[in-house]
Every structure is written in structure tokens, then in C-alpha cells.
Amino acid sequence: MIRFEDLLEKVRAYSPDADVELLRRAYVFSAFEHRGQVRHSGEPYLIHPLAVADFLADMKLDVVAVAAGLLHDVVEDTLTTIERIQELFGPEVAHVVEGVTKISVIPFASSEERQAENFRKMLLAMVDDIRVILVKLADRLHNMRTLNHLSEERRVKIAQETRDIYAPIANRLGMSKVKNELEELSFRYLEPQAYEALRAKVDARRRATEGLIGQLKTTIAAKLKEAQVPVIEIDGRIKRLWSINQKLKRQKIELEQVYDFIALRVVTEDVKECYAALGIIHQTWSPVPGRIKDFIAMPRPNGYQSLHTSVISEHGMPFEVQIRTIGMHRMAEEGIAAHWKYKEGRVGDHRDERYFTWMRQLLEYQQEVRDPQEFIQNLKIDLYPEEVYTFTPKGLVKAFPRGATAIDFAYAIHTEVGHRCVGARINGKMVPLRTRLRNGDIVEIVTAAGHKPSRDWLNFVVTSHARYEIKYLIRLEEKSRARDLGRKVLEKEARKYDVNTKALFSGEN
Ligand code: MN
User: Fold this and answer.
1) 77 annotated active-site
2) Which of 19, 58, 77, 191 is catalytic?
3) pLDDT, tens digit, for every residue of 241-268?
4) pLDDT value at position 379?
5) Does residue 304 carry a pLDDT above 90?
6) Cα within 13 Å of Cα(126), Cβ side
7) pLDDT band at 433 (very low <50, low <70, confident <90, very high)
8) Ion ligand 1 residues within 5 Å by Cβ
9) Cα(276)–Cα(230) distance, rounded to whole angstroms?
10) Mean of all residue pLDDT scores within the chain
11) What band does 348 get if pLDDT is binned at 50, 70 and 90?
């Protein structure tokens, strides 16, 4: 169990000027509000916010984030209001706690791929401070680590949501350490049999493999030293069960055929040394054709940088080597969180330039960043400024362009629902049809049989689908009205001249 004093020490170590009084007050308040509550494990509830705060401190985040970690469940689980949090801990902490509370109550309905993607986008769109996501990920990580105390049904639900929503978000933010652990735990709880079977197989190979990892590390270290390529760290490990599992499934192969069952990592000071190390490794062992990837020259979309290669050991065992600089390594492990650290992220320091570029692209953040303080204050996520995400009453996510209204929603459900739409209930309240949708709205459309769209709707719909359908129906209506009118005029004239119109119209209909 984490002691609060240890948490304070941890924060002080990376941030000597941190406002520890704020943390102390947040801790005391959280302890008081959660008093008497217990976790499913039977432990006092307070263990959870403490663990979340501790994890945020491991990421070296600022006191606002750590305090929000301590308080993150207070509004949801006790009678405390967000106003009270603001009064006691200031607007910033309150804002983060409120954000976490808001996204925690959204029901996640379907793990169907497109729905999950929309849900992830909506979640990110609802958040305007990255610390909200970081607290939420820390929260989810602790809940996943303690999942075995819940009922089977709850376990599966939470693990599924973690796999579909939170692991991909961690991935998008470049936080591979968190992503990996979330995926591994989801695998364990969602497919317990497959997980155990694979674990047994991997364990059987572990002893032999660990000896080999040791040898390979020694060899690489010696070769690099000989070539005078300085390294900071050489690390070796067996691939995670989840990624092995994915590989076996995707490529339909056996465990013995997995090329990167073992992965070694070489961490250097700078980029030049990465390429030098790659050269040495290829001279030592034969590279596997087609497995060399230069993510330094061409980073992955989430900013990940590294050189990857697979080589065959002298015992005929293939293994993967990843080579990167210490800066890239830090980014690869912690992603966006790496920039929340105190006294880091100095702009102009070219080591971070590429990261900032990625960050700005990621956040579609146009403004020039001048100093880290400003960076933190201005970093408002608006990842999808062009879109708005809403729910059907059954919890399906519908995405629209910004500015879309209840009418657009109705047409997105079905053309007929659009045509017959007479009203809308948003979050349980009747609203005018022209009401613009906001992220997270739950929208219910009220229809009446025989109702027709009005031309006026064209003034406020924004989706081309709705616009097209409305215009189409109006034109159809106008055409038939014109035809009726024309027929009446004609019949009237015909009567005057005693002409039988029946014969005239017989071909028509
Ligand atoms: Mn929580």
C-alpha cells in the first residue's frame, strides 16, 4: 500500500517547489469524503485515489494532475460538488476532476470497430485538458490491475472497454508503457484460456531464452565497445503475450516462427550512434530481409521513433533489435506524458523539436509554443474541432460536422425518420429542431406519421445527406402539386369546350 508521505517525497524529488500543501489538503479531503467506503477487494477506498496519484507522480506530472488524481472520484462517488472542489482547490484542479467525472459516466455500448473509433474520438473531443486523459488512464490502469476482485461480468465489461477505448487512446498519445499493460491485462481477462495456454508455452521456453538474452546482450555490448559506439543501455526481453498472440493469429504461424519472440533494445545518446549500432549488429548477425524499419527517418503517426531489425543468432534463433536515442526512448515509453515533467520540454532545445512538431500535428494546435509554462496552459485538446459526437438513446455514437442540428441527426438515423421528424429530445429535454448538437448529447427524435419536411429546414441542416433528402422530397411535393393544379386548370377549360379529359389522361400515371 502506498503511503501519502512517500507520494509527497516522490513529487518533491522531481519538483522541489511543488505546492505540497495543496496535495496534503487534497489527500485529507479525499480521505474524509471516501471514509467508510471500501473497494471490492475489501480494502479502504482511499487506496485507489492514492494509487492513481502515485502513478501520475511516476509520470512526473504537475501538482494539479496529482491533486486531481487524489480527488478524481470524490464528485462521482460522494456528495461533494464540483463547486466545492473549485472553492477548496482552485479552478484548475476542479476542471480536471470535472473532466474525469464527465467521461467516466458515458456509457460505452458497442465494440464494433467504427463505433469504438467514434467513441474514442468523442471522448477526446470532450476533453480540453490533456491531464484529464492522463488521470483517466491512471485510473483505468489501477482498476485493471485490481480487476480480479470484481465479478466475471464486470471484469469482461471493463476489460473490453479498456481494449477498445483506453489502450488505443494511450497508443495515440504515444504512451506505450501504459498501452502495453492495458492490452496485456485485457487479454488476460477477456481470453483467460488463450492467455493461460500461451503463457504456459512461453514459460516453457523462458529459461532457455533468458540465457540466450544474456549472451546476446554481452555480445552486442562487446561489439559496440570494440567499434567505439557508446551506448547508454542494452536491454532484452521476451515479447509481451498479447503481441505474440496477435502475431500468431494474424500470420497463422506457430510460436517457434515468431521472429521477434526476443527483443533487444539498444539506447544511445544520439541518432548518429543509432545507425552506427545498426551497422555493427548487421555485421555480427545476418539480418532477415524485409525486416529493417527506419522509424527514425519516418516516424510512426504517434511520433514513435526507432530503428528495427531482425537478425538470426549463431544458434539459428531469430530476434529483433530496436535501436533508439535516450530521448526517443523516453517518448516511446511515456509519450505525451513525457512533456508534463517539471523543468523539461524547453522549446528551442532541438532534441524536442520533432516531438513538438508531432504534438502540434496531433493536437491540430496551430499556435506557436514559446515557453513550457505557456505550453502547459495552452495545451487544450481539440483533436477533432470539425466534428461533434452524439448518442442514440441506445448508446450508438453518431458523428456529425460541427454545427449539425437535431434534423441532421434524424436523417442520419433514417431518411423516413428525417421526413417525419416533428421534435427532438436532447438529454431528456424537448428542444427546437434547429438546436445544434454538442459532444455527448443523447438525442431522441420524435416523429409523426404523414409529417413532411419544411423548406425552412434547409436553412439549418449541415449534412449533405439531410439537405439532399429534404430538397428531393420538397421537389417531389412541388411537382405533384403543380401537376394537380395543372390538371384542375385543364379540366376546367376542357369542360368549357365539352372535351372528355379521361381519354387524354388514360396513358398517364
Ligand atoms: Mn477511479
Assistant:
1) yes
2) 77
3) 998 998 888 888 888 778 778 899 999 9
4) 36
5) no
6) 26
7) very high
8) 73, 139
9) 10
10) 84
11) very low
Residue 366's pLDDT band, with cuts at 50, 70 and 90, is: very low
Give the pLDDT score at 242.
93
CA–centroid distance, residue 116 to ligand 1 (Å): 22
Distance (angstroms) between ligand 1 centre and the Cα of 359 equals 27
| Residue of 76, 256, 477, 484 marked catalytic | 76
Residue 180 C-alpha to ligand 1 middle, in angstroms? Answer: 20
Q: Which helix or strand (DSSP H or E) is residue 424 part of?
A: strand 421-426
* Weakest-pLDDT range from 86-100, 376-390, 419-433, 462-476: 376-390
78 pLDDT exceeds 60? yes
d(CA 130, CA 34): 26
Calculate how far, in angstroms, residue 100's C-alpha sits from the geometric centre of ligand 1: 9
Q: What is the dihedral of CA 441, 444, 447, 452, to 10 degrees?
A: 20
Backbone angles phi, psi at 38, to 5 degrees: -125, 155
Per-residue model confidence (pLDDT) at position 109: 67
For every residue of 204-251, DSSP letters joined together read HHHHHHHHHHHHHHHHHHHHHHHTT---SEEEEEEPPHHHHHHHHHHH
**Percent of the chain, pLDDT > 90?**
47
Measured CA distances, 331 to 57, 205, 336, 341, 455 (Å): 17, 31, 7, 12, 54
Distance (Å) from CA 139 to ligand 1 centroid: 5
CA dihedral for 108, 109, 111, 117, sign (positive or negative):
negative
pLDDT, tens only, 46-56:
999 999 999 99
Contact 462, 468 (CB under 8 A): no
Element (DSSP H or E) covering residue 263: strand 262-268
Task: Tell me the backbone φ, ψ of residue 202, rounded to 5 degrees.
Answer: -65, -40
Among candidate residues 392, 452, 467, 388, the one with its CA nearest the CA of residue 421: 452
Q: What is the CA radius of gyration of the chain?
A: 30
pLDDT at 117 over 90: no
- In three-state secondary structure terms, 190 is helix
Reply yes or no on whether 352 is catalytic.
no
- Residue for cell digits 458523428? 399
At 400, the amino acid letter reads: F
pLDDT of residue 111: 66
Strands in 305-420 per DSSP E: 307-312, 318-325, 387-391, 397-401
The residue ranges of DSSP E strands in 350-393, in sequence order, are 387-391
Å from CA of 72 to ligand 1 middle: 6
CA-closest candidate to residue 362, choices 302, 402, 304, 305: 302
